[in-house]
Amino acid sequence: MAGLIVRRLFQLIPLLLGISFIVFISLHLAPGDPASMIGGPTATREDLASIREDLGLNDPLFTQYFRYISGVVQGDLGYSYQTKQSVTEAIMIRFPNTFNLAIASIIVATVIGVGAGMISAIKQNTSLDALSTIGALAGISIPNFWLGSVLILLFAVNWQWFPAAGVTQPPWTLQGMKELILPAITLGTGSAALIARMTRSAVLEVIRQDYIRTARAKGVKEKSVILLHCMRNAMIPVITVIGLNFGFLLGGTIITEQVFAINGVGRLMIQAIANRDYTMVQGAVLLVATLFVLVNLLVDILYALIDPRIRYE
């Protein structure tokens, strides 16, 4: 296991280099000029040329990239073109909101998805199974921005049960939990649908195995058969889906943060892209990519903890 962790951490280096290069080139080849965004509509050609020179935008792309990477290696993600604020500082201020939203969303997705998938598998070909399938299709199909708007209209505006927008309190407080409920449901619904379908398939495959029939024949209670024998062996593919979805949720909070006016990394990326703030976008993407790889490493470790038969050489 220690060898796996070390190998995966070393693999992280070329992966992040590749991601940073693709993002860097894509941003610089996209239409738009950071100097024009900084200078504004009244800037003269001389002003724009001076801004480009100060930012190093007149240098060849590869020179700019290697200068950026040399800073990243030293722990310096650069400074925002617009605010002159440290990119690391700006991201760290907003990251807790994004992380808390992703955690709340994956909890919602896991509870709903695993529960619905188990019920659908145990009650196969019944009305509950059909209802779960319809719910999963609806969860995948409904756009986040539409669902979020409907939830705000119903639960925040009409019934006033939850706040309409913003995150102002820590998530472990009552007010903080109330602020996260609607965004977490909005972001977690699509993942819940995927987890439900995977859970159903995995449980149906395991529940027909010989050892399940043996456990029932020995008189083991059905609840114990499902929870102890069936679910533990069916959780490997389910954990894979949960881990991948958590990684996607960390990078997919952009729309939800915009709808609920949450000051997170996703919203920061939207503003940075609109302002052609290259360094801010690159820093945010590197953070999300790093976390995605680390989450996948954690999933591999959980495999061995759940199923002792799995060993990493």
General description of the model:
With 313 residues, the protein is an all-alpha fold. The protein folds into 2 domains: 1-27 and 276-313; 96-264, MetI-like (MetI-like fold, Orthogonal Bundle), CATH 1.10.3720. Helices cover 77% and strands 0% of the residues. It is built from 13 helices and no strands. It has helices at 2-29, 34-39, 45-55, 61-73, 87-122, 127-141, 144-158, 174-207, 210-217, 222-251, 254-259, 265-274, 278-306. Helix 8 (174-207) crosses helix 10. The termini are close together. 33% of the residues are buried. The model has no long low-confidence stretch (mean pLDDT 82). Keywords: Cell membrane, Ion transport, Membrane, Nickel, Nickel transport, Transmembrane, Transmembrane helix, Transport. Belongs to the binding-protein-dependent transport system permease family. OppBC subfamily.
Q: Keywords, please?
A:
single chain; mainly alpha; MetI-like fold; 2 domains; 77% helix
Topology diagram in text:
Blueprint: H1 2-29, H2 34-39, H3 45-55, H4 61-73, H5 87-122, H6 127-141, H7 144-158, H8 174-207, H9 210-217, H10 222-251, H11 254-259, H12 265-274, H13 278-306
Helix pairs in contact: 1-13, 5-6, 5-8, 5-10, 5-13, 6-8, 7-8, 8-10, 9-10, 10-13, 12-13
